[in-house]
Write a structure and sequence with these properties.
254 residues; alpha/beta; Rossmann fold; 8-stranded mixed beta sheet; two-stranded antiparallel sheet; 24% helix; binds S-adenosylmethionine
């Protein structure tokens, strides 16, 4: 399949299957945040909603049509397969901004090394989020995620973008009905820091990556397996009503 047939589109389907059908070296930039496998958690809060920081999190319900609860090894293998496809699709001067979160499970640090090992990670950016409430006196309120910049050898930032530093303090979006959206400021910053012409988000969700791509005059391609999120993204891109909350939950991951 030629990617030209899919630019500026929101594709509803499995991203790995879709990416496997595309030709080599056709994408300038991936900006993406996969599901974090949060329900596969040793902490009681996320499993069943008992107390703690998760008691009011939208992700207690999982994603639409996807419960985010894979055996850890399967999850890592899946994510490695996704990154392998992204690398195949990248042009020699392309890059992936891959957002994830570290956590401790049963006393072991999951720093996502199992996923990114062997890929050409050039830098780790800290995304310092704000807000949240932690009712658990056993640990400090978590406030950051990581963004792995995984780059092909010829990738270069846009002029002067290197001045931004590697710790980005950006508030999460509280007005988006998707359970785990990017804030536009984050995707704005990533996309405007590159010279990419075509930006792809294989876990497109509510379409934030596309909104920023359009804002900076780039082409986009979004993929998401959820029909509901694809419709949300399309309405948002077309400027229609899209961010109506379906219930009273706080869409806050902390
Ligand atoms: C962290 S969210 C992405 C949110 C997005 N960055 C935004 O701003 O709204 C992860 C998304 O991955 C989607 N997803 C899960 N499995 C998928 C798959 N196999 N293929 C494509 N999308 C998938 C979920 O439906 C969810 O919308």
């Amino acid at each position: 399949m030629s990617i030209d047939d899919f630019t500026n589109k929101v594709i509803c389907g499995d991203c790995l299957e879709f990416m496997r059908g595309l030709e080599d070296s056709c994408v300038d930039l991936f900006v993406t945040s996969p599901p974090y496998n949060l329900k596969n958690s040793s902490g009681n809060g996320m499993k069943d909603g008992r107390g703690g920081k998760w008691s009011n999190a939208a992700l207690l319900d999982g994603y639409d049509g996807y419960d985010d609860d894979m055996p850890y090894e399967d999850y890592c293998a899946w994510q490695r397969n996704c990154l392998t496809e992204m690398m195949r699709l990248l042009k020699p001067d392309g890059a992936v901004f891959y957002n994830h979160k570290w956590r401790v499970q049963n006393g072991l640090l999951q720093d996502r090394h199992e996923i990114i090992e062997g890929f050409p990670v050039r830098q780790v950016i800290i995304w310092k989020r704000k807000g949240g409430i932690n009712f658990n006196a056993g640990y400090f309120l978590p406030t950051y995620e990581v963004i792995y910049l995984i780059a092909k050898p010829e990738f270069k930032l846009a002029d002067k973008a290197n001045r931004l530093g590697d710790v980005w303090e950006i508030k999460q979006d509280m007005n988006n009905p998707h359970p785990a959206p990017y804030p536009e400021e984050l995707t704005d910053r990533i996309i405007s820091s590159t010279n990419a012409k075509l930006v792809v988000d294989p876990f497109g969700g509510s379409g934030t990556t596309a909104i920023s791509a359009i804002r900076y005059g780039r082409k986009y391609l979004l993929i998401d397996r959820s029909q509901e999120y694809c419709e949300m993204a399309r309405a948002r891109i077309e400027g229609g009503e899209w961010n109506v909350r379906k219930d009273s939950r706080q869409y806050n991951l902390w």
